Structures
1.
Amino acid sequence: MAKLFPKSANKLPVQIIVYLCVVGCIATAAAQYYMTPKYTRVGYAPMQPVPYSHAKHVGELGLDCRYCHSTIDTAGAAIPTSQTCMNCHNQLKAASPALAVIRESYQTGNPVPWVHVHVMPSFVYFDHSIHVNRGIGCVECHGKVSEMDVVTQVKPMSMGFCLDCHRAPELHVREKADVFNLDSGTIAATQGIEAARTFVKDWNIKPPVSCSGCHR
Amino acid sequence: MPNAAEQTSGSSEALLEVKPAELPRAALVGGNRSLSWITDKICGITEERAPAWWWWCFAAAAFVASFTVAGLTYLVATGVGVWGHRSPVNWGWDIINFVFWIGIGHAGTLISAILLLLRQKWRTSINRSAEAMTIFAVFCAAIYPLFHLGRVWYAWFLLPLPNSNEVWQNYRSPLEWDVFAIATYGTVSVLFWYVGMIPDLATLRDRFHAAGRGLRARIYGLLALGWRGSNRHWSNYEMAYLILAGLATPLVLSVHTIVSYDFAVSLIPGWHSTIFPPYFVAGAIFSGFGMVLTLVLPLRALYGLEDLITQHHIDCMCKVLLATGSMVGYAYVVEFLIAWYSANPYEGFGFINQAFGPYGWAYWVMIGCSVAVPQLFWSGKVRRNMVLVFILSLLVNLGMWCERSVIIVTSLSRDYLPSSWGFYSPSVVEIFTFFGTFGVFAVLFLLFIRFLPIMAVAELKASLPEAGPGARSGLPLAGSPGHARRSYGLMAAFESPKRVLLAAERVRDAGFRKWDCITPYPVRGLDRAMGIGRSRVPRGSLAGGIAGFCTGMVMIWFMDKLDYALAVGGKPFFSPLFAFPVSYELAILFAAFTTIGGMFCLNSLPKHYHPVLKSESIRRGTDDLFFIVIEKSDPRYDPARTRALLEGLGGAGIAELER
């Protein structure tokens, strides 16, 4: 009876095990890199219907975040209405073709179809006001929007990202005057960790880490 | 070293003096069949063209299975709301069917493991198909909890994998214990099934190779991992198989215990009961044996396996049904007693509601089919009527399905507050999905009987009445006096296990070290005759078990206490009590891995190329002949003298193997 498998087949099991180990390591590393929000979400910069530049309005002209996002410290996230834009643009560049969408919205009352950048899943309860009123700066989650021509997601916004801060708020709080100042530093960075701990204690900051804190 | 033969003869002399009573034992293989008849019969099923009924059944099964595919596709596309669950009945057919299928799965491991440990040799005719049934049933069962997640692609959240949510599983929940129990059960069942099949796959490989069907020979060859029936391999193999049985026994008991915890650990009246674990395990074995009979009886009739599955086997299975059915009936009575004795009005109401509430019909079907039906097996007339046994086995599973329905739906629909009572009926999607799983199961089972040996051929041979000293096979092969170009050693055939046993003792006493016996099944006493010591497999198993248990404890402590201390219901962050079930399952899982891995390492398998596999004789070596191979590399080897030694021992067909 002729042989069914060649002699070299005896080396196969070890070769296959080594191969599987290598492939397994590569797959794990690749999944870790490519399949987490650090890769899939960071860098998301969709084209908006109006080429609004935060760098121009905030960085150069010095608009405060709250001029447009006016309810951020009392209720929640707010995308400005076209009325807010027209406060200035009924005078400035009133005929600019780039603003045609704004003018149309202003006249018809239909909202501008802005594209949602920082998407929070509907099963997460998130309130901006408690964060900005307890020393969490805009820059903490949104990055230096004041330098962005197109709004780009810079933080993964994963549950782990939330928890990092909820578990150690002292590393992320800043003076209340600095919350809307995107160039400010955290208390821990400027005054030391002890000052940050005192701030957390004084302001009674107890971020929830239980499930129902956010998944209500 | 005392001579092994002397020892055995000494003990038999003692037995002669005592004159033990001869106990009549039913023959396990009827018709006085030979070794090769068994090989031909079982392997023939795989080798022949698929019979017409197989194609008809396969087409029908595939059609039925498409209902599951359709139901699940619709669920994934639409959302889990397409199942009819709503508060208060949040578990309906999905968990009923999950428990139903998992329960069916229990008979396979019971037959292969517990009956092996209890030395119930009648298991050999049915263990292979029962193990296959187990695996396919676990597969069908796993569909339900996974798709009940709704977003099934997030099922990996159930596993302890690092993730961007930086949160770990809640190991205080029996649902998480379930994940480990079912996963371990599925894995160990597959390993047990596969390891048990390796010698038979080798037989198929050699038969297909001899018949010149190269593709299938190669496929079976790859799966057989180069098994050549070496007795040094058998020694480790038998030890590994025994340890796996020892591991699977607590596993099979723990799995349905943990499934019962899904209910018993909650506070719903009708669920919150300490009798659940034993009652669930008995019910699982009961339903599993029902399913084994449902599958085995048609197989027996269609393939003419009456000599392999004899009336004795069917009697045994019916008696197991009778015993476990009675246990289940006893549990029903005790449940009522507990409800009355506890004087808890909710508990009491729950049980009266089971029998006389809106789902009372399910309760009475359950009593009829699970308690009354098995009592018929007291009668030998019933056990001998195959059609009746088949119908009763179907009724058993109908009863057990109703039992799960009674437990789950009836209890949930009416608990403490009458204001929150509800009524549940399954949606069309649920009915489709459940109906279809029978097709999924049947498709898998039909593929199994078509392509894999449906009975443990090697084990059946070992259970032949003439096996052990005295069995005789056909004529040995013609030898070849010539010399191989690059010699590996000499191979001699022996026609019976008795002869190979005697020859092996002589070869051992001649001082050979590098030699081996090739046998179609593990011959009792051959290890001692060859001077092989106790297998070292158990050391690996022990190490694996300890490692698994510690891994479980450390993992849960790290995840639930250190890395993400999550407060759940005021329970401690870590306690060895709630960490125990998962650690227990991991101990079994790791031990199973190290047992099988250790067996393969000690046997240096897989080894697809070996001089013995190249020889003409191996086809008989995995069928009905016994060989001794003496390697050239042994210092005492001498071509002429060794050949003379083998001839003197009665070896036939002596041939030199090519390296």
2.
Amino acid sequence: MIDLSCQAGVDQLRRYAPLVDDLDAFLAAAARPLDKVAWLNPLKGDVGETEALLRARCPAMIPLGWAPNAWRLPDAPQPGAWIEHLMGRLYIQEAAALWAGLLVGARPGERVLDMCASPGGKAAQIAVAMADQGTLIANERSRGRLSALRRTLDRLGVTCAAIHQGDGARLRLSEGSFDRVLVDAPCTCEGNRRPPPRPDPRLDITPPPALRATAPIDLEAQARFRASICQVQRALLRRAVRLTRPGGVILYATCTYAPEENEATLSAIPIEDAVITPIEAPEGLHVSPGVPTWGGQVYRPDVVHAARLWPHHNDTGGFFAARLIRL
Amino acid sequence: MRRALSDFEPHPHPDLIWGWLEARFGIPPSVFAGHRLWRRGASPSIWIAAATATPPPLDLESFGMLLSRKPPPHAKPTSVFLQRFGDAATLSVVRLDAAAARRFLSRAAQPIEAAGLSRGYCVARGPMGVLGCGFFDGARLLSETPKFWRAGLDLG
């Protein structure tokens, strides 16, 4: 995994120079601290009242603009410690991840699967979009991450979710039985490594004040990890496509820039099984299209309908999302 | 391979649970019109889920939200259940100011003036809404909130 606390780690992102419009701005943003973002939960209290509580906590809060009831929280290092947070009136989420949850487009009464659900932020967004009506299956492979998932859904007051522990790629459920499936796939997390705005005082660590000049990087280990995680991503997406009904939606998302983990994964799905449809970005959100080629590989042509978020465009983490329709 | 079937089934005595919630907390059954009660195998625990939700045929960790680990007359509502539905409570409600709410969340017992409140579980309500489940022992309010809530909470 790339370590953005050291210069060598940031330099690794230079491999994306052919994809990005402004390499220097990208590298600078990738290493810059990122403000927390909160979205307000209509399942727990009146959203207008929660907004007033939030404003009292963080007078400098700024509307995210391109997502409803979502706010950037400058100078709020640990909103997760607020009573309002404990009461489930808000959820703290990285802005780009928040967008992915919205892209699922879930509706009340639907049957939706979140294949890799912990810690539960996107699952909770889906439940809110469903107005807590229908069935949401929140699956998580790691037993150690289940408690975080359960606590999130409980805290946010969700009653339409079933939590299951298991490998999403081997879920023994009827094929074609879901209206929507979210594959928020495990990845190398290159886009999710921006530092917090200031050290969390609850953590007994002191981050380095500035980027270290060098750090040992095991490139072979990184390559092995990427190769193995790509296999996992493909297996998850293949299963997601099979579990979705004809006309249903599969949202594939990662928090990494790497085409090997994004466009290549999408290209492992036969075009006769699912098509990638254009993602319309909300006003105020700058997205970049998927790339048709990378490193000599040519991908399926509709990957250009996917969307990549670069951190310098929207002051978010890095992200990738593609919306597929099951045929 | 383990047979993957949900062991959640509709609760056989929902009226008993709705009746307890109305008698102890004054929450009318109409509040739960969009929800159903479930039980899990031989466990006495009671779960509440959206009426439109159905448990998938999997060996589930949870379905909906845990309402109580025991049935009436020994039932204790979970704090997450009260946070979601306790706004509708009209009985056994303890209103706390900001300082008392912080004490409650720190799980400290505190004496309260509670005319008309009978011994037993109650809804602890702070200035921002329902905090969770408390227990009134006749003189003091004890916090029945999960221990892990206290960790990392800013009560300053």
